[in-house]
Specification:
The protein is an alpha+beta fold. It has two domains: about 140 residues, no CATH class; about 120 residues, no CATH class. Helix content is about 30%, strand content about 15%. It contains eight helices and eleven strands. A hairpin with a 6-residue loop joins strand 6 and strand 7. The longest helix has 20 residues. The N terminus is likely disordered.
């Protein structure tokens, strides 16, 4: 028996079309504190920031506390806690080409879920509101935590051995991290291998790269003589230079060198003369040492 193809009313054979994600290179552009959004997405182990919804949207969901967090238990994208507090995670497992849209979908799903119930979030939500559409213009105020105890609701059974063991394992994964007052979206951290300073630069990539190349070409890129410029991340459309420091350097000891570097960097941003040959070589070297995070 021959197989017959189904035809549409026009006589053409219908074809399945695959919906492709639209990639947004700089998904947090336009949000106050764009660098801290990138840091919470890519750099920070345990951090939170309260979110302020636009008034017209807040009226629809009621008076609920909404908190942005780096990560949630079991890599959940969102959580609606028993006390009606809503958490939305930056470091979710699945993502489309627009991270801002993904996080907004997680937030909307959490607000629609009953307190204490699991939150069902689509892996790829499709077109819809982004975080820029849902939030007010309030700056992002990040708090870095030493533990994940903020996950637990006030009525959580902390005496439960399973909960205690789970929290102990999660807390053991946190490496010491401190925000730096001398640089927006600048953070000191101590990993098992190194002590680092990482700063998310808010300028567009080309401007930031040229400024860093000027400093490197003029041998002014180090934080201190004992520090080492380790390279850069490319994360969500922004550059994140990284410095290795001596193992005993504290966050407080970084403040003055970072402040001096940020002054040099601001000055380099204003320079308009063509790059010198040394600066062009430095720029090529910086590009070659970039690691893209997406």
């Amino acid at each position: 028996m021959s197989k017959r193809r189904k035809h549409s009313a026009s006589g053409a054979t219908p074809r399945k079309t695959k919906i492709r994600d639209v990639f947004v290179a700089r998904p947090f552009e336009g949000l106050p504190g764009e660098g801290d959004w990138v840091a919470m997405r890519e750099l920070l182990p345990a951090a939170t920031a309260p979110l302020s919804l636009k008034p017209e949207f807040a009226e629809q969901v009621g008076d609920r506390e909404v908190v942005l967090t780096t990560v949630l238990p079991l890599a959940w994208p969102a959580m609606s806690r028993t006390d009606d507090k809503v958490f939305v995670a930056m470091q979710r497992q699945f993502q489309s080409g627009d991270v801002s849209r993904d996080i907004a979908a997680s937030l909307l799903a959490a607000l629609a879920a009953a307190p204490g119930r699991p939150v069902a979030v689509p892996a790829r939500p499709g077109p819809g509101p982004r975080m820029q559409d849902l939030l007010s213009d309030a700056p992002l105020e990040v708090t870095v935590h030493d533990t994940f105890d903020y996950w637990l609701a006030p009525d959580a059974d902390t005496e439960n051995p399973q909960i205690g063991a789970s929290m102990e394992r999660a807390n053991a994964s946190i490496y010491p991290t401190s925000p730096l007052a001398s640089a927006d979206a600048g953070y000191w951290c101590r990993t098992p291998e190194h002590v680092h300073v990482r700063i998310v630069m808010p300028q567009d990539e080309d401007s930031a790269l040229d400024a860093l190349a000027r400093l490197r070409g003029d041998d002014r890129l180090k934080l201190t003589e004992a520090s080492k410029f380790a390279g850069m991340f490319r994360a969500h459309g922004l550059l994140v230079p990284v410095w290795d420091l001596a193992p005993d350097v504290t966050a407080e000891e970084c403040e003055s060198p970072v402040a001096e570097f940020m002054k040099r960097y601001a000055e380099a941003l204003t320079e308009t003369a063509p790059l010198t040959s040394a600066q062009r070589r430095a720029r090529d070297g910086l590009v070659g040492r970039q690691l893209t995070l997406r």
